[in-house]
Amino acid sequence: MKVNEVINAKDLPVMEFDGIIIGGGGAGLRASLQLAKSGLNTAVISKVFPTRSHTVSAQGGITCAIQSDDPDDDWRWHMFDTVKGSDYIGDQDAIEYMCSEGPKAVFELEHMGLPFSRTDEGKIYQRPFGGQSKDYGKGGQATRTCAAADRTGHSLLHTLYQANLKAGTNFLNEWFAIDMVLNEDGAVVGVVAFEIESGEIFYIRSKATVLATGGAGRIYASTTNALINSGDGIGMALRAGLPVQDIEMWQFHPTGIHGAGTLVTEGCRGEGGYLLNKDGERFMERYAPNSKDLAGRDVVARSMALEIIEGRGCGPNKDHIFLRLDHLGPEVVHKRLPGITELSKTFAGVDPAVQPIPVVPTCHYMMGGVPTNVNGQVITVKDGEDIVVEGLYAAGEVACVSVHGGNRLGGNSLLDLVVFGRSAGLHIEESMKQGIDLKKASHDDIDKALVRLNKLNASTEGEQVSDLKDKMQQNMQNNFGVFRRGDLMEEGIKKLHDSREEVENMFLPDKSAVFNTARIEALEMQNLFEVAEATAVAANERKESRGAHARDDYPDRDDENWLKHSVYFSETKKVIKRKVNNKPKTVEAFQPTVRTY
Amino acid sequence: MSAVIPVSHLQTLKMSIYRFDPSVDEKPYMQEIIVEVPADKDIMVLDALHLAKVKEPSLSYRRSCREGVCGSDGMNINGKNGLACITPLSEAVKRNKLTLRPMPGLPVVRDLIVDMKLFYDQLEKVQPYLITKSENPEKGRLQSPKEREQLDGLYECILCGCCSTACPSFWWNPDKFLGPAALLQSWRFIADSRDEATDERLDDLEDAFSLYRCHGIMNCVSVCPKGLNPTEAISNIRNKLISRKRQ
Which backbone phi and psi does B105 adopt, to 5 degrees? Predict the structure, then answer.
């Protein structure tokens, strides 16, 4: 059965697995490794060959208290930093789990062969990163981010792929998942997916489904994210009636290359680089007297945006900031930051060992996502109660477990994806041991997952994908950026509302079944649109400033009303509040205080 | 192309692109697509492809990171293999013309997309993962900075396929000669002080084809978008094989 035919569930061929993982990035590959080793019949469904996933672009490192640099380093200090970084809406049980399990997960990567940079004693090299401290903020800057030069994501992703090859994981590479199949009990019982090359389409039945589809930075016009970051898992979850949490929280990375949007790692500032305005002033000293250029990313990004808004930007249009590295000397720049040297030459035409890099805050990371518990099980909320969605897991950027809350610390995303990819794998393994039945789905259940594909295939007129995407990206960029305002957001929401019908009825001019990237882009656009709308509504609803969410009309944090997760459902377009976890198991909870760096 | 940069001047670029959809076309053909590109700013070949795809949505090519680290968009650009996303038009365009074809030597799936199966199969043959026999220590293994330096120029490979599909030896024997990319990976693990399977790895390369079909043509070196040197890796393996015989 081909993807360009009129498809009915009753004709659809079926494939069967114990577990499937949607997405072949770091989180997906860490989960699949766990499952492959357990001998379960599992498969990774990835729309690109796994090493093309966006984890590959992570640069600076993976933050973890492994005590290479400081033998007294403590995962509790890392936990404190992460809770503070999250502006107190990170779940403390999850952060505790991540920071304490972290060393195990990092050493496992080393054992798999990850080519970490090394200290003189041969240990894993660590560098300072933003928002890091010793002794619960009282002991000065910590040096906690484990690195493989500035290609840590590349090294991590390739290492995990290699380990999966060794373990004999099944890969369905260049397959695209359209939608999840839920049965009448609301349990997830697999997905409808097709092989991109041949166009062969299947219902893939499974006892457990893991969403590991990554982020959705392409909702913005300017982003560090890969072109494939289209929020496929978020789209699937929302269409299935499941919620997303804290989706208004988007991280703008301080240093995206001006014009191109490509990332320049925070590790540059960790190695001693700093930001300058047009007067050559190290302006971060004014905004964050202690941490300076290594304050939280939200703080640095806002400071940069303010410098530009107030006319102190660099260049003829005063529209960017300079990142200076040349004082570090060519030795450090070329040895510790070789990838940055390459990217700066290619995309900014400068050699950072000689000239400063022009940078601007650029959309980088989705802190929100599908809510899960520490086992990676997806949660929905009914009548104020958390309910586990049977058969469904999520890990990595698509998930909101939530360890990043309102603002993620640099180096915590790679840690998040290995720790929670692993924990989802472990939980599935354990559940399978206890025995899960492969639940049935009716033809009606499966047909629901085919609706948007059949609609696209039948289209004879309508808007072009590229036009719709441009429109949405500009809207998000202008109305939901670093600084936000109620009236502009209302306008943005209205624009989105007006284009929903166009997005659902867009025109697919190319109906070929063979490696049809137009069809993929159309399906991805619908996913992006779900993320954009969720972001817009939740951002307007959160009437305070916290973490990455900075409102001109509500400039203060409001702990009384908003020390809460926002939970958004697309069916009702409503946001409800969910309690933040402040019950870690082994330490006392960190209480919210004024957040300064 | 970034939408935030205002473009004041445009100029036309003539693109000639290899087109083939086996479900529609009897045979491949070159299609001319004319796009408007900025006159006062360099853009990448991938940006030009995006402009072409807006005009011709059925045009198919792979792409992901758009910054030269994922290895999706290897293609033949005016006769030379490279990554579309980090090849600027100023480097690629000759006489205002840009000719794009799929990477040579592998079957074409559609347009600029080749079937990479042979390439990946050869990669898997070298067991591209760390093999250890001793027990893992509780923490990480130690490796000196000098030992770690041996992996520089090797671990950065992005598996784009530019090298192997530019290699005449790979064109002739893609099933028997492992090709530069796989051999670079083989050396990456032989060179790793933590790996404990050097002998087995070398044993697997002793036949007449796997390694020895490399004739030092060095196309791999000239096309590698990451500036890596597979020929050197291959000669390092040869030296290792020879010195092992002597012992």
Answer: 90, -10
ipTM above 0.90, yes or no: yes
Q: Measured between alpha carbons, how far is A106 from A412 in angstroms, rounded to an integer? A: 12
Residues 6+ apart with CB under 8 A from A429: A34, A35, A38, A40
The CA radius of gyration of chain B, in Å to the nearest whole number, is 21
Tally Cβ neighbours within 10 Å of residue A289. 11
pTM above 0.95, yes or no: yes
Residue of A nearest to B124 (CA): A165
Catalytic residues of A: 297
A62 Cα distance to chain centroid: 14
Where do we find the tokens 């490509």?
A: A262
Q: Are strands A370-371 and A399-400 parallel, antiparallel or unpaired?
A: parallel
CB-CB under 8 Å, A158 with B57: no
- Using one digit for the tens of pLDDT, what is the confidence trace for A224-256? 999 999 999 999 999 999 999 999 999 999 999
Pairing state between β A274-276 and A357-366: unpaired
Of A49, A155, A515, the CB nearest to B110: A515
Cα–Cα distances (Å) from A526 to A181, A202, A450, in that order, read 18, 21, 14
A282 lies within 8 A of chain B by CB: no
Which DSSP category does B97 fall into? E
Q: Which site among A66, A227, A463 would you substitute to test the B interface, given the most B Cβ atoms closer than 10 Å to its Cβ?
A: A227
Q: A148 and B140 in contact (C-beta within 8 Å)?
A: no
Task: Give me the residue label for tokens 């290897």.
Answer: B74
